[in-house]
């Protein structure tokens, strides 16, 4: 019988590993605009306002390329393009995610690879019809 891990243990593990991500931010106030831009982009992304989210992700990536959320934003940007029907741009950005993902960002590289396969399947399906 498979062993089930209680949600409280998963939550505790997540919270244990979360702080190092945020310790990479500078201690000064320069991280506040980055977080604001990121939060706006994510809210629009979650609301499926792909075009508006895309603009904020572009802004974040242009202004804050040295932050811990760079690869995450790159992935979200690629997904926005995929949802907007620009499969070629999405695939290019997913490849960039794979190229830039290191260490803790390996999750995003795996997700990007799955999205590339999905986008190629969708494109092939539409070309056949």
Summarize the structure.
With about 130 residues, the protein is mainly alpha-helical. It has helices spanning about 5-25, 30-45, 50-65, 70-85, 85-100, 105-129.
How would you describe this structure to a colleague?
The chain is mainly α and 129 residues long. The chain is built from six helices and no strands. The chain has helices at residues 7-23, 31-46, 50-63, 70-83, 87-100, 106-128. It is globular, with a radius of gyration of 17 Å. Residues 1-28 have low confidence and may be disordered.
In whole angstroms, the N-to-C terminal distance is 45 Å
- The residue-averaged pLDDT reads 80
Strand content: under 5%
The biggest sheet, with number of strands, parallel, antiparallel or mixed sense and barrel status, is: none
Class from helix and strand fractions: mainly alpha
Q: Could you spell the SSE succession in H and E letters?
A: HHHHHH
C-alpha geometry: globular
Q: Unreliable segments (pLDDT under 50, ≥5 consecutive)?
A: 1-28
Strand tally is 0
Write the layout of secondary structure elements.
Layout: H1 7-23, H2 31-46, H3 50-63, H4 70-83, H5 87-100, H6 106-128
Helix pairs in contact: 2-3, 3-4, 4-5, 4-6, 5-6
